[in-house]
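Input chain follows. Return structure tokens only.
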Amino acid sequence: MQFPPKIVGAAVLGSLPLGEGAKLLFMWNIGKVKVTEIAELTTTSAAHWLLPDATADRVRDIEWMQPIYATPEGKVHMTIRALVIEDGDRRILVDTCLGNDKERPVPTWNMRSGTFLEDLEAAGFAPDTIDTVLCTHLHVDHVGWNTRLVDGQWVPTFPNARYLFADVEWAHWSGETSGMDQILRADSIQPVIDAGLVDLVAVDAALTDNIRLRPTPGHTPGHVSVEIRSEGEQAIITGDLSHMVCQAAHPEWGSSFDVVPAEAEATRRAFFAEHADTEVLVLGTHWEPCAARVLSDGDVWRVEPAGAR
């Protein structure tokens, strides 16, 4: 079954059913640059496990979130996804989700056997055709498919790619000694370092003439977002500067995993203020749906799916 494309402002959305639960794959054009979503896992759940202040009653009070972003009961839709950017002959994979066969503390993330790689290939992106992997930061749901398990060994999933970590991010995480960080490093980070595939880059590095990193610290010290500018059009991939759209209405609602909470809030406020009431296409890494515009809403902001106006 094929789904027809939709025209959304300057962006073209196409869709086709892929693996788990026939999750759709979406594509956007930003000038000459194309972005394709590969979703690994979509859930609908209470938000306060991640944003402690986002209780169900408080989410219900944000009327614009329903029914697209949240249920009437105050549960929030959320996706773990990767985004592939095509710019000329470049293929840049932004974030690599959870991965399979890995021990993780969240039950739905633990020892997965999902269809991410099959979905990636079905979309036209065989792993050996990816030339760059960019991790916005080094959290568990952004590095998992850096590697895959082959004959009991963790090997790079994308053998022809350079894996890019922000230098500030690596300086922070290379010093972490907690149990989960050590497990994560052993199965998803160290193998690509040992393979000689990692480059440490500045938090404002240019990846192409049309794509560059933007420092958005707080969630982690070296967290970056990804800006795309082409032929007068603009998009930005958020990473985890905002996990859920309710943070537009309440930028003070921080994540349990924000390393520097005050800085993370300041980054969110600056981000929403800068992009409000503009034509910038915001691609929320965990937002569901992903693509949106930011609009002013009194002293705060609201989020509308791209093309809703």
